[in-house]
Amino acid sequence: MKIWLLDNVYVQLPYPFQLYHTRTNAEDITIYARGAKITIRFNPLLEDIINQLNTNEIFHTGSLLKQLNEEWPPQAGLYFWLYIQ
Questions:
Q1: Is-contact 3 77, C-beta < 8 A?
Q2: Residue 38: strand pairing partners
Q3: How would residue 1 be classed by pLDDT, with cut points 50, 70 and 90?
Q4: Residue-range definition of the domain harbouring residue 72
Q5: Best exposed site among 31, 32, 35, 60 by fewest CB in 10 Å?
Q6: With helix as H, strand as E and coil as C, how does the chain read?
Q7: Averaged pLDDT for residues 27-56
Q8: How many domains are contained in the chain?
Q9: CA dist 60 to 12, 25, 32, 40, 66, Å?
């Protein structure tokens, strides 16, 4: 299933903002973005995505979420993007 809302969407964290994360337990990760906090199911690819975004480069959402969508439904990726924006 493809989420059309993410077609042709690019993301870049505005400087100097960074995403921070902590592992709250073996199953969850807590992500902090511009004063907000979200706890979601852990996936090691999330840490890679966060590290890439923290470079403040521009990324196509499809390329970042491609591997994640193999394990998670595309709606989870959309939720993540809406949260960090």
A1: yes
A2: 31
A3: very low
A4: 4-84
A5: 35
A6: CCCHHHCCCEECCCCCCCEEEEECCCCEEEEEECCEEEEEECCHHHHHHHHHHCCCCCEEHHHHHHHHHHHCCHHHHHHHHHHHC
A7: 90
A8: 1
A9: 9, 30, 21, 22, 10
